[in-house]
Every structure is written in structure tokens, then in C-alpha cells.
Design goal:
By secondary structure, the protein is α+β, with helices and mostly antiparallel strands. About 20% of the residues lie in helices and about 30% in strands. It contains seven helices and 15 strands. A hairpin with a 3-residue loop joins strand 3 (about 70-75) and strand 4 (about 80-85).
């Protein structure tokens, strides 16, 4: 028997897993739904030089200060409300007992940030910008504030599946052509929605894999790939892409699947582009 000696693949360890953080509090602020969070320093100026603040429903002075300073009520949650006030009036409103909401016009994606006030996306290599053009696709949606149950119900009523949270107040959703068209229309017309955009393959990949300018076909990487619940076809595709490293695991209440495989670095972009791969 002839034995062919080739350069061995050098294994390194990486991951596709995206740290999505905690669920946004449904029906409440990023603290207790019983009232606004404790006062903080003023948040960065948002659209048009404004600052977003929370006002406790019991704080008449802060409500009056927000209103008389030219602020606009964004959402009333009952026990508290979200306002957008001119940056120059933020300190007075905070001094009256309001609480800074923080920067709600951004989506944090494992060290990469989308500026949702300007629809400005972070730079990505060309190989990680376009997803598989199949019937299904993953998109991002961000709401204007802490998420109310009826807002998610509206997405589901339009044929979209809720896949995973992205802070602050954002979600990865899945849909097909008609549902995705409805999502884009909601992004233009629904005042509770702050941003709608594609969930690009590069947002699903660990930065240490994204930043490789020239992936090496002779170099392997161990990856954990999360696939949307029930998407057996993509689970099979992930397993077939390399060497499985253990059983498929089911995650949490959403039922997404974790698949661990060892693949060539050059296979990472194709995996990330699969229509049901979350991270």
C-alpha cells in the first residue's frame, strides 16, 4: 500500500457563537416594570440631538419637565414612560428624577455595532456580507424601547418567527418572501420599530474568525453553530461540512440547536450564510 504524506491540518479552536445577551424585558424597562431605573448620567445624544429617558409614572415633576422642555413621549408603559428630550434639556429632566435610558439606537453584535439611528452597518469582509439567497432568511428588527408583548405578536401575525434576542430591544427573526416584505413595510410605517435590516453572515461569526483576511484551507477550527429550531436541513448541512464533535443539543425555550463540528477555516463563511444559522 502506498501512503501519501500531506501537510497535516493544524487545528485551532474558534467559535461561531454570538453572545446575544439577555432577553429584553417584555413589557418593562431594563429594570423593574414597577418604575423607571435609577438615575444615571445623560445618555449619548440620539436623532436630532435628543436623549432618551425613562420617567416614573409617579414622578409628576419629571413628566412636566420632559414635556415643557420640548420632549416627545415615545411609549407609555403604564408604570413608566419613555421620552425623547432635547439634549440641552436632559440634565434638568434627570435632576427632576428621570433616568437615562442609555443608547437605544444601536445593536450590539459581538463587538460590532449597527448605528440604528443612521442605519450605519459595521464593515465586514465581502465573503461575510451576503446570506444564502434561499426562500428563508434571517433579519434584524429593533423596537424603539423595552418590548411589549403585542409588538412581538404583530411580527408573528405577519408570518415571522422570533429566533433570538439582540440587545437592546432587538431580535433576530426568520421569514420567507412575503413575511420579509411585510417586515420591511413595518420598518417604514410602524412607529414602534426603530430599525429593520438583514442579519448578515458576518454578524453570526466570532470576531477572531471574521478578521482573518485569508482563511486557510489547511487549517481547521472547532465551531459551535446554532441553528433555528426545526431546521433539520441546515443541521444536516452543518454536520456534513466537517467532523462532528458531539451530539446535537437543544437550547432553551426557543428550541434552537447547537451543532459542534471541526471544519476548514475556508468553510466558515458558507456555514454562516446558511439561511437558518443564527450564530
Amino acid at each position: 500500500m502506498f501512503t501519501r504524506h500531506t501537510r497535516a491540518r493544524r487545528a485551532i479552536v474558534g467559535t461561531l457563537v454570538l453572545a446575544t445577551g439577555l432577553w429584553s424585558v417584555v413589557g418593562g424597562a431594563a429594570g423593574s416594570a414597577q418604575g423607571a431605573p435609577p438615575p444615571k448620567p445623560a445618555s449619548p445624544a440620539g436623532p436630532g440631538g435628543t436623549v432618551e429617558i425613562y420617567v416614573d409614572a409617579r414622578n409628576a415633576l419629571a413628566s412636566r419637565t420632559a414635556r415643557t422642555s420640548g420632549g416627545a413621549l415615545v411609549v407609555d408603559y403604564g408604570s413608566f414612560s419613555l421620552w425623547r428630550v432635547p439634549a440641552g434639556a436632559a440634565d434638568a429632566t434627570l435632576a427632576a428624577g428621570a433616568s437615562a435610558a442609555g443608547d437605544l439606537d444601536r445593536l450590539s453584535l459581538r463587538g460590532r455595532v449597527i448605528d440604528t439611528a443612521t442605519d450605519s452597518e459595521p464593515p465586514l469582509p465581502a465573503r461575510l456580507r451576503s446570506a444564502d439567497p434561499g426562500a428563508k432568511a434571517l433579519w434584524l428588527v429593533q423596537f424603539v424601547g423595552p418590548v411589549k408583548p403585542e409588538w412581538l405578536a404583530n411580527l408573528e401575525a405577519n408570518g415571522l418567527g422570533i429566533v433570538a434576542p439582540v440587545p437592546p430591544n432587538g431580535f433576530v427573526v426568520q421569514g420567507v418572501g412575503k413575511a420579509l416584505a411585510a417586515l420591511q413595510e413595518l420598518g417604514r410605517t410602524d412607529t414602534t420599530i426603530n430599525y429593520v435590516g438583514p442579519f448578515r453572515p458576518g454578524y453570526r461569526v466570532s470576531p477572531d474568525l471574521i478578521d482573518k483576511s485569508a482563511p486557510d484551507a489547511e487549517r481547521t477550527v472547532d465551531v459551535t453553530v446554532q441553528v433555528v429550531a426545526g431546521e433539520a436541513g441546515d443541521i444536516t448541512a452543518v454536520l456534513a461540512s466537517g467532523t462532528p464533535l458531539g451530539p446535537v443539543e437543544t437550547l432553551g425555550s426557543l428550541g434552537n440547536s447547537n451543532v459542534r463540528v471541526r471544519v476548514a477555516e475556508t468553510a466558515v463563511a458558507a456555514l454562516a450564510a446558511l439561511p437558518s444559522v443564527v450564530n
